[in-house]
């Protein structure tokens, strides 16, 4: 691990030791950017492995002739999914001399920076699912978050498609809303959902606001009323998306929303002396969490 010494600066003047410094400009010391809670169920846990099971409960009953027995059903059991905790961490080491003689409270500055990078580091990890919705991460069935090959547990193995693959537009929003209105459950029965969040990469924030907040239908000369403006749909400008075309819609408030982050240990700060005679200070931070999804039907990937 690197050591923060009195000659930490890029000159030979040891500016960290001089008095009269008006300020230290640090572009990395701004507010902490944490957005992942907008698209995740954030769940605390004391388990190393959290296991979710998929099941389809009873289906509709049919007509029973007089004198005949009522049919008895079994639930349809699906797949399991494990969330295994992963550890993330980093830290710094600062010399005794740097702590004693520096004029800019570098120990405090580094500790503040460590808190920031740990919180934002978790946010960056959680954004990976949304930056790769058609690859890498899979749910109960081994299928990715956005796919035309999603399946249910009903006897007909009914499939559904939650991948739009189209630019954000009036037509694209119509397709997304139709998707949520025609969702089926694991018995293949109608189970419509109400989406509550439209997320997008910052490039699309103007398009999203025009589509959702214009009084008339945007991008055309007509007297057609814009029906989207009455939807209770939160607009989420997702700064950690990396594709300028990425957007989607979710039913985050629905009880069936199944995109999760399980955290057993929030980021901490531990101050200790290293196992030597330097009298330096070693500061480390660690956190334990895991993220993923099981059932993707309350998520619509508009575009990647």
Explain what the structure shows.
It is a single chain. With 304 residues, the chain is an alpha+beta fold. It has a domain at 105-304. The chain has helices spanning 96-101, 106-131, 170-181, 205-213, and strands at residues 3-4, 41-44, 49-56, 76-84, 86-94, 150-151, 159-160, 197-200, 234-237, 247-250, 259-265, 270-272, 281-293, 299-303. Strands 1, 2, 5, 11, 12 and 13 form a six-stranded mixed β-sheet that branches. Strands 9-8-10-14 form a four-stranded mixed β-sheet, with helices on one face. The radius of gyration is 26 Å and the shape is elongated. The two termini are 38 Å apart.
Largest sheet: 6 strands, mixed
Q: Approximately how much beta-strand content do the residues carry?
A: 25-35%
State the end-to-end distance. Answer: 38 Å
From N to C, what is the helix and strand string? EEEEEHHEEHEHEEEEEE
Mean residue pLDDT: 91
Our Rg estimate from Cα atoms comes to: 26 Å
Shape: elongated
Number of strand segments: 14
Low-confidence stretches: none
Number of helices: 4
Class by SSE composition: alpha+beta
Percent helix, as a range, is: 10-25%
């Amino acid at each position: 691990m690197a050591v923060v010494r009195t000659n930490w600066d890029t000159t030979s003047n040891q500016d960290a030791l001089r008095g009269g410094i008006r300020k230290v400009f640090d572009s990395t010391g701004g507010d902490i950017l944490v957005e992942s809670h907008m698209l995740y169920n954030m769940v605390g846990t004391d388990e190393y492995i959290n296991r979710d099971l998929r099941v389809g409960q009873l289906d509709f009953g049919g007509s029973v002739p007089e004198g005949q027995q009522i049919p008895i059903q079994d639930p349809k059991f699906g797949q399991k999914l494990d969330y295994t905790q992963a550890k993330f961490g980093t830290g710094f080491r600062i010399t005794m001399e740097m702590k004693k003689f520096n004029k800019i409270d570098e120990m405090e500055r580094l500790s503040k920076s460590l808190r920031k990078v740990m919180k934002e580091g978790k946010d960056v990890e959680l954004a990976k699912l949304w930056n790769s919705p058609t690859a890498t991460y899979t749910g109960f069935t081994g299928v990715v978050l956005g796919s035309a090959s999603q399946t249910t547990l009903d006897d007909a193995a009914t499939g559904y498609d939650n991948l739009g693959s189209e630019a954000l537009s009036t037509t694209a929003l119509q397709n997304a809303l139709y998707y949520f209105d025609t969702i089926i459950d694991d018995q293949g029965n109608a189970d419509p959902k109400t989406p509550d969040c439209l997320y997008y990469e910052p490039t699309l924030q103007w398009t999203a606001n025009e589509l959702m907040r214009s009084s008339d239908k945007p991008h055309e000369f007509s007297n057609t009323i814009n029906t989207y403006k009455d939807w209770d749909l939160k607009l989420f400008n997702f700064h950690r998306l990396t594709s300028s075309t990425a957007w989607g819609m979710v039913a985050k408030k629905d009880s069936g929303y199944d995109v999760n982050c399980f955290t057993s240990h929030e980021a901490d700060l531990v101050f200790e002396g290293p196992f030597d005679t330097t009298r330096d200070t070693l500061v480390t931070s660690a956190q334990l969490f895991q993220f993923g999804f099981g059932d993707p039907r309350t998520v619509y990937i508009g575009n990647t």
